[in-house]
Amino acid sequence: MRQFLGFLLPAAGLTLDEGCLEVLKEVWHPRIVHTQPAWLTNDSLPCWYSKVDLSLITDCFPARRYFHGAVALDGKVYCCPWDSNVFIVYDPSGGTLTAHDIAQVTPSRYARFSRMCALDGKLYAAPCVSDVMLIFDPASDSLSGVDIASFSCKGGDKFSGVCGLDGKVYMTPGHGDYLLVYDTQLGTVSGVDVTSVAQGSDKFSGACVCHGKIYGSPCNSDKLLVYDPASGSMSGIDVTGIVIGPSKFFDALSFAGKVYFGPCSADALVIYDPELGELRSMSIKHFCTGSGKFSGICALGGKIYLTPCNAHVVLVYTPEWETFVSIDLSSLFVASVEHLFGACALDGCLYVAGRFESYMLVLGGFDPWERVSKLEAEEATREAQLEARMKCKAASLGLGVSLQHLLKNFVPEALELCPIPCPSFVELVSHYAMGSTGKGKGNICPRDWRPDCSVVDALSRTHSGQATHFLSWCWGYKVHDFHATLQLWSEDHAELKLDGTFIWVCFFCNNQYRILEEQTQTGSDALEETFKTRLLTIGRVLIMLDSALEPYYIKRVWCVYETFMAVSCNVPTEALLPPLGRTQLHEAVRDGMQQVKCAFDAIDVEKAEASHKEDEDHVKHLIKQTSGGFPLVNEKVREHLARLVKQEIGKFLGAG
Asked: Where is the signal peptide (predicted)?
């Protein structure tokens, strides 16, 4: 029988020598109160549980937050304090519990430490509130501390993740701006600025080492942190194509050459493969929803275990099968609050630290895996994966680029990537929207879950959102003219919020890797249904003309068709002109309107062209099928564009 299956009953409490604050310890010897493990009785994965009672060995705030992390080392389990005044060591083999008072090490009695790591036989705890990193040496059974105030920040959530590599301890920042580096040999503390990757509060949570690099799991950050100690380089990998919002992940785990991020508010276990540069997700919505789902992640027996914070299940992920099964713990909990925080694996068991609960939970007996076949596990996972992927695809297809990004960031980014001084979009696409320098290169596309995504999916969520306007335009336009036209339009509409206006532009919103590079489709597939649905969903169309006198726009079959569809669907439209085009129109008004009239009389969709002959033929085929064919389309588009130009003239005359 395993001695750690019972509850622990304390002997004498902690005492302090009179007039001093030394680091003290007391040892509790447990009395076994049941001789057989208690099996969870539900239909989930079978296992037994036990609880190690911690309630009477620690003095806590009324909030009853006890411990915040667990690490296994040399056959023992270690827990760092969270509103507790002791650091504890649990020895399962002897059933003993040792408590070390932290008062002498840190000036704050309730210092709060986020997580721990083991390195070269010692334990290192990252401070949340304290300015001291906690160090425990099992060999001497002693605590010590290192002042890290130089690279800390005011208030709480100073550091949230910790890992060790090559004699150095790395701590990822919460509110702070530095990745802290502690050299265990030299005893020195240094910092690496992370603001190029993330800014603001609660940047990162957990940390781990994989292939010689440090990875920080994003909390509020939109990027996961990657630091290479060998080169000193700091970088970030955008995760917004998979998960958005605050409190994304709690912790990180390196396992079998990949990095796993345990979900907090995220609805998926996210996996990063450094060798392939591939980021992917496995949905968990079938098993639990809400915020604060899981706080611990560890590996045991070739499987990944997600241990709960607010969730009432343990999720078991099998990388070989790419499937989940669950262990229902709801019978153990009495309230819907966060209960546990942090976990580790030792000798075939899971040890889960108690944050709100006054015990450490022990789970074991995971051997009867034959009761859960691969097919059963796949069936439970497949439904959740399909639902999540469909939602991600729908959300991605509805995104537009923020007007703020188009006006503030786009042109500098485009000119930096493209060697042509004043490129058109035709010239820019291979540098900006596809190819090795494309904005979406290497990012997982949320529409088909393959590498390389659209520009809009690669943007942070501050620069993309549900589309509010659809832009009808030509790829032959110059980047500067495109920018100037939108700038003039935004000035005309002072009521528009730059960060609240999102424009669907095919260049940015279609995945050019699929359409142009792989040529899996020309863009005309399911054209009528796609356009009609998109136009009706977005509800407003911007028609960008390069000129009102000799518009290139009317020579492009796509553009004519888009205007025709907008008119046919009664979708509100507005004409946009660049500054030069507006000036030319105003001069034409002064000199007479004959030139403008002749320009629109020249519309002949039968002679209009497209970049791809397949597109041109397909669009013209659709037009032929409409009642009235080419003549009707010419007439409707001519009348509509003329009406829009008259509105522009009205603005000019009204201003005069």
From this structure: 1-19
